């Protein structure tokens, strides 16, 4: 029996085990929506803006290890989705974005709601396809999911012209697939792994630096096991929080621009560095020249060869799946005859403990105004460190990263690479959809939340009981902080005048809003919010306007050149 | 340093724009780029002439390899190779200059492929430097038009790039 392109699209989603699709209908995708409505295996979540659809699919993917799926129409549907696609691309998140296109005969005619989707999205996708013939549709969908989830994951766009969705053909979904031009490496080179293990055994000041690839590669358990076996200090990047448990004594905190003093100092002064699924980006190691003023031997495990020796030259590259490489390393460490230098390690730890005593994350606990850090600490306490936490971008994001001690992978969902304000709320929707019974908190600011505030309406429609913690300091806080430090306190356009009454705004969308103005009310408000199991609660915390994120490595400076409290 | 990189690509619409886009997005130099289908119609072969430090060239080959449609990538400059470029030049050829121009074409082992009473169109192949040398050797004011293909390259001997 022949099926239409629209039916085939939906059947492919079913074959891939897709349960949720986040989308917004429009002219070019009407046949697909028609087919969606005729079945109930794949549930559609109607967002209020296409950016929200992609962020929601993204949050869904990050919190589950499944491929997130979004469905948008041609033209503005696609351009609205681009921010979401670029966000996922920068953080290597597996997504399949199905975009409607004008009929094949109208392509290139400047048709209504036409845009060059493949051209516009090309620089921010892992790959994209334009399906010109319905006979290619099923195979293309198979390839899209395969490419999105394998190797270094990433978003894949499938652009389907309207006439292709109405034409019919026999439906055969390929069981397996192989592509001569795409064969991601899985197993790490045995010789390199052996070399790495020897280097680690001889290290006097070792350091383990863990990036988001460890979470994407589901290697947290192996990473934790290896780190504990070795007894080495471990730091997580912003993207890797939760990969190694933050409550463990070997964890020295996040590193980078707003990393802890001890993590950054240890990075700078270590003699052997094991980088696991990380990419030495500018916000992590600061100025590479300064980084190389101290010499160290670097071992780098990554699935993407182009991540290796891109910003920092490494000594022992290991290309492969992080999990498999770590498993092999664990085996070899267990079997190693060579004794590690216990004396050297002990004195390295006492140096780190000295750095720790600097207590770089301290803040004023006696403040009469709510300190943003205090809100995050309370959230961590009251959720027992077990909530899914999404965030937007700015100071609140950094405080969340510093003060919420993540102990499990895939619990911390944020836009690290692209730094997309507006990511927090829609990604929380995806997370809540994937984990309907779990507490989901969205930590945001009054500036970020307004970039996708319309999604409060989606939350109402699908009864998503997200808890929004808005750290409202009436400033674009991170912009204000940079202006204070680097632009002579001239706060150009960073003050948000004419803010809405967020409590009434939440209520207008049919949710619960709570205003919190005193430190003494913080705990009660968070408790109340989480006790309302069925309600979305918007907590509007009026926080200290002058608070800054410390430590801070200013742009262009080296890791050990931190501004401290 | 100048490098000449060969890429075997799936012969699909948009593959060329992925390569061109990669170079512009990451700020890599591109001196010339040639592309055409191979004897296997499902594959295109591209020759890219670029320049950069060793680190940059390493990134360029890695990024090219990362393109989903790139089947094989080889830096021909890593070993012995041959490269050729084709140039067509239209020159003014009147009176006594006509004979002189013909002689220059012979010296450079070119061919005159179109003739009118006022001009010649010359076909010349060789390395880029040879083509440059020819243009220098003839009277610059006689040049009416030039078109060059950019370099194509191939490895020497048993250095073979094939799927």
Characterization of this structure:
The complex is a heterodimer of chains A (about 575) and B (about 160). Chain A is an alpha/beta fold and about 575 residues long. In chain A, helix 1 packs across helix 2 and helix 16 runs parallel beside helix 22 (about 520-530). In chain A, the strands form four sheets. In chain A, strands 3-2-4-5-7-6 form a six-stranded parallel β-sheet, with helices on both faces. A six-stranded parallel β-sheet of chain A has the order 11-10-9-12-13-14, with helices on both faces. In chain A, strands 16-15-17-18-20-19 form a six-stranded parallel β-sheet, with helices on both faces. Chain A has 22 helices and 20 strands. Chain A is globular. Chain B has four helices and nine strands, in the order E-H-E-E-H-E-E-H-E-E-H-E-E. Chain B has helices at about 15-25, 55-65, 95-105, 130-135; strands at about 1-10, 30-35, 45-50, 70-75, 80-90, 110-115, 120-125, 145-150, 150-155. In chain B, strands 5, 6, 7, 8 and 9 form a five-stranded antiparallel β-sheet that branches. The radius of gyration of chain B is 19 Å and the shape is elongated. The model of chain B has no long low-confidence stretch (mean pLDDT about 95). The interface of A and B includes residues 122, 127, 130 and 313 of A.
């Amino acid at each position: 029996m022949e099926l239409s392109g629209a039916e085939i699209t939906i059947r492919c989603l079913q074959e891939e085990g897709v349960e949720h699709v986040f989308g917004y209908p429009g002219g070019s995708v009407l046949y697909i929506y028609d087919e969606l409505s005729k079945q109930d295996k794949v549930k559609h979540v109607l967002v209020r803006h296409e950016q929200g659809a992609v962020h929601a699919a993204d949050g869904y993917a990050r919190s589950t290890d499944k491929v997130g799926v979004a469905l948008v129409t041609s033209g503005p549907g696609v351009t609205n989705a681009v921010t979401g696609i670029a966000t996922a691309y920068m953080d290597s998140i597996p997504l399949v974005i199905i975009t409607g296109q004008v009929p094949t005969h109208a392509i290139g005619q400047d048709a209504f709601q036409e845009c060059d989707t493949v051209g516009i999205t090309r620089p921010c996708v892992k790959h994209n396809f334009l399906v010109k013939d319905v006979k290619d549709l099923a195979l293309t969908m198979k390839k899209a999911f395969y490419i999105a989830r394998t190797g270094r994951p990433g978003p894949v766009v499938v652009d389907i012209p309207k006439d292709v969705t109405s034409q019919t053909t026999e439906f055969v979904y390929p069981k397996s697939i192989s592509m001569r031009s795409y064969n991601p490496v899985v197993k790490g080179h045995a010789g390199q792994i052996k070399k790495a293990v020897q280097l680690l055994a001889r290290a006097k000041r070792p350091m383990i630096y863990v990036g988001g690839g460890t979470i994407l590669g589901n290697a947290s358990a192996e990473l934790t096991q290896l780190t504990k076996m070795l007894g080495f200090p471990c730091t997580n990047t912003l993207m890797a929080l939760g990969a190694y448990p933050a409550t463990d004594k070997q964890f020295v905190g996040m590193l980078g621009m707003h990393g802890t003093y001890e993590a950054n100092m240890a990075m700078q002064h270590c003699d052997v560095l094991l980088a696991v699924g990380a990419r030495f980006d500018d916000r992590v190691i600061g100025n590479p020249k300064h980084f190389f003023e101290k010499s160290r031997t670097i071992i780098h495990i990554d699935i993407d060869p182009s991540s290796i020796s891109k910003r920092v030259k490494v000594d022992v590259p290991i290309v492969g799946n992080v999990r498999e490489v770590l498993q092999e390393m664990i085996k070899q460490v267990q079997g190693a005859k060579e004794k590690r230098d216990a004396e050297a390690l002990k004195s390295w730890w006492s140096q780190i403990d000295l750095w720790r005593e600097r207590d770089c994350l301290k803040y004023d606990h006696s403040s009469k105004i709510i300190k943003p850090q205090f809100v995050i600490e309370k959230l961590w306490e009251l959720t027992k460190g077990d909530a899914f936490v999404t965030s937007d971008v700015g100071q609140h994001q950094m405080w969340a990263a510093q003060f919420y001690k993540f102990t499990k992978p895939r619990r911390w969902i944020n836009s690290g690479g692209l730094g997309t304000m507006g990511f927090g709320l829609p990604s929380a929707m995806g997370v809540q959809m994937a984990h309907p019974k779990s507490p989901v908190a969205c930590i945001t600011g009054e500036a970020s939340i307004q970039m996708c505030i319309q999604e409060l309406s989606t939350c109402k429609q699908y009864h998503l009981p997200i808890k929004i913690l808005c750290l409202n300091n009436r400033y674009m806080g991170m912009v204000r902080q940079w202006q204070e430090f680097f632009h002579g306190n001239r706060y150009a356009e960073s003050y948000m005048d004419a803010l809405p009454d967020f409590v009434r705004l939440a209520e207008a969308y049919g949710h619960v809003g709570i205003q919190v103005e005193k430190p003494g009310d913080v705990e009660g408000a968070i408790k109340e919010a989480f006790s309302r199991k069925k309600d979305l609660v918007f907590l509007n915390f009026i926080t200290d306007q002058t608070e800054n994120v410390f430590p801070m490595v200013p742009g262009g400076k080296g890791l050990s050149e931190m501004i401290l409290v | 340093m100048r490098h000449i990189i060969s890429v075997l690509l799936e012969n699909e619409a948009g593959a060329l724009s992925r390569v061109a886009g990669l170079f512009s997005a990451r700020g890599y130099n591109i001196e010339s780029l040639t592309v055409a289908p191979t004897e296997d119609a499902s594959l295109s072969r591209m020759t890219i002439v670029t320049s950069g430090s060793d680190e940059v060239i390493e990134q360029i080959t890695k990024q090219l390899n990362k393109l989903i449609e790139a089947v094989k990538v080889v830096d021909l400059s890593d070993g012995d190779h041959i490269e050729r470029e084709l140039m067509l030049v239209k020159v003014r050829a009147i009176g006594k200059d006509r004979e002189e121009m013909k002689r220059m074409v012979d010296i450079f082992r070119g061919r005159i492929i179109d003739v009118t009473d006022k001009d010649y169109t010359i076909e010349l192949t060789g390395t880029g430097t040879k083509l440059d040398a020819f243009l220098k050797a003839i009277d610059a004011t006689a040049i009416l038009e030039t078109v060059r293909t950019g370099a194509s390259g191939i490895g020497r001997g048993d250095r073979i790039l094939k799927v």
